[in-house]
Every structure is written in structure tokens, then in C-alpha cells.
């Protein structure tokens, strides 16, 4: 899957990963994919709820060495 933009939100606490994600997703086209890297443990529930409520699609989620990686397709 082609990722259009990668957002490094590591070290940021809630609500900053969501704030940064909103800004980053506004910079890509509908249908493109944003990848978000964060260390905020609450990001899984926060980003899932945010994607669902804003019409975006959470495509993938994984954790690697304490970093949570999300792929979100802009709706």
C-alpha cells in the first residue's frame, strides 16, 4: 500500500496526536493514506474513534518496539 505522508507524533501526549493527525490528513487528497507513528498508549482508541467519526478509514494498526503505527485512508 502506498503511503502518501508519514506523521511522526512520537513523544506527544493526548490530545496532540489527534491534533497533528487532523492537520496532516488535511494536507493529502481523498483516498490517499496517512501513516501515523505515536507512543501515546491511548492513541488506539482515540484514532479509531476519530477516524470513524470523521469518515476516514483505519486500514491498519500495529505496534513495533513501543511505537504504535496507524494507516488511515482519507475519506
From TrEMBL:
<protein>
    <submittedName>
        <fullName>Sulfurtransferase TusA family protein</fullName>
    </submittedName>
</protein>
<dbReference type="InterPro" id="IPR001455">
    <property type="entry name" value="TusA-like"/>
</dbReference>
<comment type="similarity">
    <text>Belongs to the sulfur carrier protein TusA family.</text>
</comment>
<feature type="domain" description="UPF0033">
    <location>
        <begin position="7"/>
        <end position="31"/>
    </location>
</feature>
<dbReference type="Pfam" id="PF01206">
    <property type="entry name" value="TusA"/>
</dbReference>
<dbReference type="InterPro" id="IPR036868">
    <property type="entry name" value="TusA-like_sf"/>
</dbReference>
